[in-house]
Amino acid sequence: MLHSMSTTLQSASDRSAADVNEEIRALWLRSGGILNSEQRLTYQQLVAEWAAVSPHPGDEA
Q1: Which of 28, 33, 50, 55 falls 20 to 30 Å from 40 in CA-CA distance?
Q2: DSSP the chain
Q3: What are the φ and ψ backbone dihedral angles of 54, each rounded to 5 degrees?
Q4: Rounded to whole angstroms, how far apart are CA atoms 50 and 45?
Q5: Rounded to two decimals, what is the model's pTM?
Q6: Are 32 and 12 in contact (CB under 8 A)?
Q7: Cα 41 vs. chain centroid, distance in angstroms?
Q8: Alpha-carbon distance 25 to 29, whole Å?
Q9: What are phi and psi of 5, to 5 degrees?
Q10: Rounded to an integer, what distance in angstroms lies between the CA atom of residue 27 and that of residue 57?
């Protein structure tokens, strides 16, 4: 389910990678595939958050 994006980014420990990925997809959908400078900054922050919470190979020990 796509939802509107919050104006503040939650800390990485608050959301799963799937939740952050859903927000990234919603941002692209709302923008029509073209991000303005504010949306681009939000996208970069979301990608960094997604990378921080995504499982990494070798972490499954």
Answers
A1: 55
A2: ---PPPSSPPPGGGS-HHHHHHHHHHHHHHHTT---HHHHHHHHHHHHHHHHHS--TT---
A3: -75, 145
A4: 9
A5: 0.71
A6: no
A7: 11
A8: 6
A9: -80, 140
A10: 27
- Give 32: exposed, middle or buried? Use CB within 10 Å, 0-12, 13-18, 19+: exposed
pLDDT in tens, 8-58: 555 545 899 999 999 999 999 999 999 999 999 999 999 999 999 998 887
- Residue showing tokens 């939740």: 19
Contact (CB, 8 A) for 26 and 4? yes
**Cα–Cα distance measured from residue 20 to residue 37, given in angstroms and rounded to the nearest whole number:** 20
13 contacts 52 by C-beta, under 8 angstroms? no
